[in-house]
Amino acid sequence: MEPRISIITVATDDLDRAVGFYEAMGLKRHAGITDGVAFFQMGGAILGLFPRADAEKDSGVTFAAAPSAVYLAYNTRSDAEVDEVLAAAEKAGGRIVKPAGRAFWGGWYGYFADADGHVWEVAHNPAFPIAEDGTISLPD
Predict the structure, then answer these.
(1) How many alpha carbons lie under 13 Å from residue 2 in its C-beta half-sphere?
(2) How far is the CA of 126 from the CAs of 99, 119, 130, in angstroms?
(3) Cis, peptide link before residue 67, omega less than 30° from 0
(4) How many CB atoms are located within 10 Å of the residue 110 CB?
(5) How far apart are CA 76 and CA 87, in angstroms?
(6) CA atoms of 72 and 25, how far apart (whole Å)
(7) Type and span of the H or E element at 12
(8) 7-54+67-124: what fold?
(9) Whole-prediction pTM value?
(10) Secondary structure (DSSP) of 64-106
(11) Residue 64's pLDDT is what?
């Protein structure tokens, strides 16, 4: 197995509402694949939105309601960008779970929940460089 994640799929209770949230966050939905699913290019990975009932039927697993033990993370290039992303999430209909603040590891971070309650960490960690194309690297 190659060390990468290809697609992160999030089960949603309302696909249209979830799409609206992520579009309001500035993401662009892939226009070619829209029948009962939504895809957003996220740098080298893809964020997929799939109706919860369909995801459960497809996988054979009953998913716990959000939030779960898994959360998503979006790293930024500056402390100010953390604040901007959290404000955009709130404006788009999300909920601030933890306001931005200084982390014990020295960075700046906060958390929001999307329209379905899925939790995202938004962080600026100067030790994790982000390339121009958005790919992130672990420190040397």
Answers:
(1) 3
(2) 19, 22, 9
(3) yes
(4) 20
(5) 14
(6) 15
(7) strand 7-12
(8) 2,3-Dihydroxybiphenyl 1,2-Dioxygenase; domain 1 (3.10.180)
(9) 0.89
(10) PPSS-S--EEEE-SSHHHHHHHHHHHHHTT-EEEEEEEE-TTS
(11) 80
Task: Please state the domain extents for the chain.
Answer: 7-54+67-124
- Is residue 98 within 8 Å of residue 52, measured between CB atoms? no
CA 17 to chain CA centroid, Å, is 15
User: Which class for 11: exposed (0-12), middle (13-18), buried (19 or more C-beta within 10 A)?
Assistant: buried
Q: Which pLDDT score is estimated for 5? A: 87
Question: Which pLDDT does position 75 carry in this prediction?
Answer: 95
Backbone angles phi and psi of 136, in degrees to 5? -110, 150
Which residue in the block uniquely carries the two structure tokens 């799939």? 50
